[in-house]
């Protein structure tokens, strides 16, 4: 029996992780449930899964939860509680599926506590990759990626010599705006941007897919996870979301990981690694219905996020922390209808172009860069307001 802490249990990844646990009650138990403020869903999850600890990071929501909860779990409320839950002695695996940079500190603490890490939070490595990888090496921790693309690469590397990689090839569905021009995207609405063609994800990840900032974040994440130079990481568009990513080796061989676009597959493999269990999708690929697999090239002029991601990654230091923070703030401004869709790119570009790069030596350096980048983003957002 593996005891699992689900950091972000009410989000898209968290709820799907609980589906996997529900399928294998003899193998997994949700020992910790952690959410920000979705009290109603968290109460239902607590009743069904009977965890030993529950985390609510929003204080008001936490008090509301406590007044309605009549179970026996220990309840943590407020800042710093994710880290506290991640290091509990009764936890084996920590699934980090919270949104944004909030995943960084609990990931670091869980690694230091010797926990198995299932990472579904891109921003942890984008903002603090150097620190996380250093701690993982020090504590001999294998980070099991949950993102479908990084899980695919992880699987394509099994049994292979990582020194013989020629290219990592990340695939993208292209999102809802594949093939669109800048003119087409001039007046995109929030509802338009949330209509993903193949994946069912949370709001932030879906919007990042629409801008292709998610792919930029994944390029940076892949660099840290697999130790591959940015020049050796490519992005292609695979609209059907069947090829989840590929690895090209120096002999010209390409190994691809394919399957249904179902996040329960990489979640389950992160929990069961190195073993495989019966598919949680309850169905297999029907190749008879597939006449062709399309591969297209991304439009770097329209989706400047990719160019900006490579720019930030190659600059090093705290630049990827800044890239992540600026994107998060620009996305929030778009959701609030303060800026147009295309201005998300403008805000991030302006912040990066005016940033003086500093080295990252500590978590304090990451926190400082993140804070200052958000201040710079607020100023940029004012200049691009609708």
TrEMBL record:
It is an enzyme of class 1 (oxidoreductase). Coiled coil: none annotated. The keyword Metal-binding applies. Pathway: Isoprenoid biosynthesis; isopentenyl diphosphate biosynthesis via DXP pathway; isopentenyl diphosphate from 1-deoxy-D-xylulose 5-phosphate: step 1/6. Residues 4-129 form the 1-deoxy-D-xylulose 5-phosphate reductoisomerase N-terminal domain. One of its GO terms (biological process) is isopentenyl diphosphate biosynthetic process, methylerythritol 4-phosphate pathway involved in terpenoid biosynthetic process. The lineage of its organism: Bacteria, Bacillati, Bacillota, Negativicutes, Veillonellales. This is 1-deoxy-D-xylulose 5-phosphate reductoisomerase.
């Amino acid at each position: 029996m593996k005891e699992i802490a689900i950091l972000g249990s009410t989000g898209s990844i968290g709820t799907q992780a609980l589906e996997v646990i529900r399928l294998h009650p003899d193998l997994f138990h949700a020992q910790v449930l952690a959410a920000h403020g979705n009290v109603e869903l968290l109460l239902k999850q607590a009743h069904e899964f009977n965890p030993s600890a529950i985390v609510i990071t929003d204080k008001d929501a936490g008090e509301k939860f406590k007044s309605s909860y009549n179970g026996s779990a220990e309840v943590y409320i407020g800042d710093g509680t994710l880290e506290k839950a991640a290091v509990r002695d009764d936890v084996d695996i920590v699934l980090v599926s919270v949104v944004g940079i909030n995943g960084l500190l609990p990931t670091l603490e869980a690694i230091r506590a010797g926990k198995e890490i299932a990472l579904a939070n891109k921003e942890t490595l984008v903002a603090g990759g150097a620190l996380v990888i250093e701690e993982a090496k020090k504590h001999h921790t294998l980070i099991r990626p949950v993102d479908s693309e990084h899980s695919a690469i992880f699987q394509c590397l099994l049994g292979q010599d990582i020194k013989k990689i020629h290219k990592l090839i990340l695939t993208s569905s292209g999102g809802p705006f594949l093939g669109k021009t800048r003119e087409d995207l001039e007046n995109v609405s929030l509802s338009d941007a949330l209509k993903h063609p193949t994946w069912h994800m949370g709001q932030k990840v879906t919007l990042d897919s629409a801008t292709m900032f998610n792919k930029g974040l994944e390029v940076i994440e892949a660099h840290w996870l697999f130790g591959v130079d940015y020049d050796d990481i490519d992005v292609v568009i695979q609209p059907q979301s069947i090829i989840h990513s590929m690895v090209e080796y120096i002999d010209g061989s390409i190994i691809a990981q394919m399957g249904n676009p179902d996040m329960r597959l990489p979640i389950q493999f992160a929990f069961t690694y190195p073993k495989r269990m019966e598919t949680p999708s309850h169905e297999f690929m029907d190749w008879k219905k597939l006449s062709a697999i399309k591969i297209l090239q991304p439009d770097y002029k329209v989706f400047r996020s990719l160019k900006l991601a490579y720019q930030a990654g190659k600059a090093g230091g705290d630049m990827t922390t800044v890239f992540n923070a600026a994107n998060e703030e620009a996305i929030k401004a778009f959701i609030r209808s303060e800026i147009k869709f295309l201005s998300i790119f403008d805000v991030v570009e302006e912040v990066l172009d005016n940033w003086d790069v500093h080295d990252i030596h500590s978590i304090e350096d990451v926190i400082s860069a993140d804070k200052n980048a958000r201040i710079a983003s607020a100023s940029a957002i004012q200049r691009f307001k609708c």
